[in-house]
Amino acid sequence: MAKKIKDNRPGARLPKGLRDIEAAEIRAQNAMLASIRKVYENYGFEPLETPAFEYTDALGKFLPDSDRPNEGVFSLQDEDEQWLSLRYDMTAPLARYVAENFDRLPKPFRRYATGPVWRNEKPGPGRFRQFTQFDADTVGTESVAADAEMCMLAADTLEALGVPRGNFLIKVNNRKVLDGIMEAAGIAGEENAGRRLTVLRAIDKLDRLGLAGVEQLLGEGRLDESGDYTKGAGLSKDAISAIRAFVVPAKDGQDPFAELDGLLKNSEIGREGRAELAQIAELISAAGYSDRVKIDPSVVRGLEYYTGPVFEAELTFEVTGDDGKPVRFGSVGGGGRYDDLVARFTGKTVPATGFSLGVSRLQAALNALGRGAEGDVPGPVVVLVMDRDRLSDYQALTQRLRSAGIRAEMYLGTSGMKAQMKYADKRGSPCVVIQGSDEREKGEVQIKDLIEGALAAQSIADNKEWKEARPAQFSVSEVALEEEVRKVLARHFPQSD
Q: Which residues hold L-histidine (predicted)?
């Protein structure tokens, strides 16, 4: 009996938590990024691109999953045995860049950046380990006017992308206020740093888990639907009540801090945060953004490095999901002040504030709202190859179309007419160009309108009628090729003219 040879071929499988992105979505995303870039440029921000990898110690320990063995990032060692990690956001690389180039940069330094980031977190529905962010940051000023500007930037960006007023809200808070509440709850001081981080992460899950779930995480812990147990902050009932007063939003028309001022009266940092929020509210009002930007004490942001104002861009509209249930997208971006991040490298405080949009989530929300950028474009016109020994003639026809600004390709396979037509259909071609020996002798080409042909085919009963009708296929002079193809494209895609 012949010995069975072991199959060592790798399986074609996508890594967990990642996804392939195809042409239509890429084009839609590119159009969306162009709109965001235009708003950011209008505010005076300049582009900056940093590498995907940074030294791991440059990224810090600010991830929501920092209790994981590899700190929630994807890491490897280089030839010098130094640890490198894929960036998990655009902010930590910016801090490294500013620290490295501080003396030659204008202050404030204003930059925007976009690209993929990676997080080694537990994947789930709509939660991927690689996704795209678009950030804007101002580095080198303590003025809360920079924070107020970030909120206005976020509002203008959402409107530029087609989200109408009334369908979004930029919510603003200040981490100094939360620090004051933490003092009142009895968890101030360095010895409680771990518990405070647990509290931050718990509050940041309010939209997903609800108040009851947050209270479980503030207490002993929470068991989720999958059976995973998350240890809580272990706060007392009084401390949980203080945090509850912080996260429950005020009703319309009520002072959002009415229940908190009593808790903050003995906290200097808490009162400082309140004063900064009052100044931001004044700036927002003066600029005419009060209908889109609101003070909301429940906003905390989950990352530890925020030191002052924090903000979140929330979509407030609902759509109906495939299961018939309402879907609300919630937060699609956020940011805040991080005055200590550059100091990790320099030892000197460099004030900074920034805002980040989650591009993939926002794109899904825009599609649901019917405001997504058009991602489909006409497929290429395909020049069929009827005579293999006349390839140069077909290449010349193809290049003529390209030179006229028409997307085109010559069929590069070796199959016959039927397979070439199937290929053109799969490519989404609006039409094909056909030239056999008879057409060449007459100085003509045939153009077959595949879109019109498909429509006509629905009303033709049999093959005989099809052959007699020869729908949407016509001959033109070879010199008129570009003009006639343009007419076909204009008939079906007038916007592409």
A: 89-91, 119, 133, 137, 301, 305-306
Tokens of 403: 């030179």
**Taking a C-beta distance cutoff of 8 angstroms, is the pair 412, 384 a contact?**
no
Q: Tokens 């235009």 map to which residue?
A: 38
Q: Is 91 annotated as a binding residue?
A: yes
Q: How far apart are CA 410 and CA 403, in angstroms?
A: 14
- Say whether 376 counts as a known binding-site residue: no
Would you state the pLDDT for residue 67? 46
Tokens of 465: 């009628």
409 burial via Cβ count (<10 Å: 0-12, 13-18, 19+): middle
0.90 exceeded by pTM: no
Confidence of residue 459 (pLDDT cuts 50, 70, 90): low
CA dihedral 333→339→340→346, nearest 10 degrees, is 120
What's the CA gap between 38 and 326, in Å, rounded? 33
Q: Is 43 annotated as a binding residue?
A: no
Confirm if 131 and 117 have CB atoms less than 8 A apart. Answer: yes
C-alpha distances out from residue 280 to 145, 174, 283, 443, Å? 7, 10, 5, 72
Residue 9 marked ligand-binding: no
Q: For residues 351 and 307, what is the distance between their CA atoms, to the nearest angstrom?
A: 10
What is d(CA 311, CA 140) in angstroms, rounded to the nearest whole number?
A: 19
301 annotated ligand binder: yes
Q: In this structure, how many other beta carbons lie within 10 angstroms of the beta carbon of residue 231?
A: 11
Name the phi and psi angles at 90, rounded to 5. Answer: -95, -10
Give the residue extent of every domain in the chain: 23-175+264-369, 381-496
Architecture label for domain 381-496 = 3-Layer(aba) Sandwich (3.40)
CA distances (Å), origin 417, targets 49, 286, 388, 398, 447: 47, 68, 12, 17, 14
Contacts of 252 (CB under 8 A, 6+ apart): none
Tens-place pLDDT, residues 240-281: 887 777 777 666 666 766 667 777 878 888 889 989 999 999
Confidence of residue 219 (pLDDT cuts 50, 70, 90): confident
CATH code of the region 23-175+264-369 = 3.30.930.10
User: Could you report the per-residue pLDDT of 380-435, keeping only the tens digit for each?
Assistant: 999 999 999 999 999 999 999 999 999 999 999 999 999 999 999 999 999 999 99
Selected residue with higher pLDDT from 453 and 463: 453
Tell me: is residue 133 an annotated ligand-binding position: yes
| Count, residues in the chain | 497
Residue type, 440: R
Percent over 90 (pLDDT), the chain: 51
Is 138 among the annotated ligand-binding positions? no
Is 305 flagged in the annotation as binding? yes
> What are the pLDDT digits (tens) for 121-150?
888 777 789 999 999 999 999 999 999 999
